[in-house]
């Protein structure tokens, strides 16, 4: 119960009430609290202390709910998922569309929730007795948006702008998809036209909300003008129906243009789910089909509503199917996120398939660099099967002179498990010999004429052409069942000893007059503890041998062949 002092204080708020049909401007209607000041005083007198506190709690709760509204947005977590999948790369057009759609529509939702702060509007309610006399009682609340002038302005005239603009931005997604994939760019004009019609229908909806001014919500007696509001919604539903029809036409035009560009849509013989997962354009068609299914329901309800109004004068019949309208409206936006997820999934599968090893051969690229020199072997034949053949660790093999075009002292590995065709030529590989699929290992050093290749375990004095591998910073390990190539700080050189040219620390080829290079000494130490380079050649079902790095000071072509294979570096 209000005290006398409080009642006197309330008189200062009378200016916020438009009573007795007084002329008021739009601004006065927006700031008004009602059309009957006496009703306002009665309401405050009816409140006890607990109800007053509860009203204050409702205000705080409404503000918190409004700020929390973005997290309740239907597409918030879908949007977050797309952001994660695209790694928050907002330079992509699709990311800009989805971000703008999120921001604009959530702002509209927040504005709509803030409208709940205006749940009371103190107005008159007419009552007619049996003699036809009209009296007025008080109404304190405003259960519908249209019953509070400022709430109508805030949620429908302002909030609708953000809702519709957010939808318009998202409506461009099929247009961009079509423009990106269509071969005949001239045929896209029809998509631009239908998209423009679709967008204009929503702009028309924005403008139409301003046709009902907050000044017209109450008549001269301060009574809610429901008849005028009902007439407003007749036209409103016609515009909504136009939007749905425009959406169907737009989606079909997109499908038509893309189908014209890609014959795979008509030739695809897979089932519905397969086409839905693999064909982006098919997903666009689905949204149009959903609209077509529910379109008759909305159309029939609007027709019936008009029939009863013009035939019987019934304007208060509740034929609203707003939930169905929202479902139809949101299908196309759900398809945006579904389409993006499936496109990313399809792209990921394609990348995995293309990068995975084949059943028969796998090709590995080895890049070994020193300064500006690069040794790039484009192929390593890794012909693997399930057979269990082992590298033969024997000491019997012949060393044949090899011409410069066929001698490749490099990282070429024939992984010959179950390899049916065995080469006839012996190829020198990292000072070892592979001949007829056998891996020949030499445990003792051999003295073959001029050149020697030795691996040192202790400090030895080697005078002429040697390969020094010291166990300091240049440690190259070749382990079993790995394909890792460890590049170290030291250098290995191909040194060609021409006439009057002496070189140390390298692979040394003595050139004779007939340009034939013979390797005179091939020393291979197997599993020597403490050596700089050790070869672990253990017998297993799948033997993988990795080799040490060879750096060439010259950038060029080293020709060799295994049958018809060429290796470039």
Automatic annotation (TrEMBL):
Segments passing through the bilayer: 71-90, 190-211, 231-258, 284-310
Keyword Transmembrane helix among record annotations: yes
Biased composition (Basic and acidic residues): 444-463
Keywords annotated in UniProt: Membrane, Transmembrane, Transmembrane helix
Record's compositionally biased regions (Low complexity): 474-485
Region (Disordered): 444-485
Protein name (database record): Uncharacterized protein
Organism: Neocallimastix californiae
Lineage of origin: Eukaryota, Fungi, Fungi incertae sedis, Chytridiomycota, Chytridiomycota incertae sedis
